[in-house]
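Handoff note, outgoing to incoming analyst
You'll be picking up this chain. Sequence as last confirmed:
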Amino acid sequence: MREVHAAAGIGALVLADGDRRAREATAVSLRRAGFTTIDVGTGAEALRAVDEGDVRLVLLEVDLPDMTGYEVCHELRQDGRADPAVVFLSGIRTEPLDRVAGLLLGADDFIVKPFDANELIARVRRFISRRPTLRPTTESGLHLSLTEREQEVLSLLAEGARPKEVAQQLSISPKTVGTHIQNLLGKLGVHSRAELVAQAYMLGLVGLPAAARERKEITLLGS
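Most recent structure output, in case you need it:
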């Protein structure tokens, strides 16, 4: 049974967590910050809530009673469904492999429990508003050496393509796309696809005319 809590209207989000006490505590923090929350306890309810309403973001516990949060994320990213931001929450699936797997499935972020309520609100606001908050890191001595294929994958991600669509457009396997995304995350020093795209724009690796982009890459490699 889902619970809908209307607040100041900054944006509607789904909170899916099988732990009722944890879910209620998180929902209280979100409502105090002015969000409208739809609180559910299962993956099926989360999917139904997204299909039925104008949902901007889904907060997903990885371990849900009926399916994993990974499965919910996979369903949300299928063609024909809505495309809200997806943020995983977990106090059990906390290893780097778990976090990377979530990101490669299409999640925008992964928050480990226990978390500070203020940090959660800050991250939620970032995805609701769609305003990147990363700062350029070239001044700190970042040295980038992207392969041609990594540049192609990065450009397609910046254009809004999902990993499956990237694989189709480049005629490579989804697994290979996942490997390239992992490499890009490491090279740009970020932890999510959203951060990856934001950082790429700030560094001028995407969104520039070809000639300007080539000059930017040469400068980075020679710095």
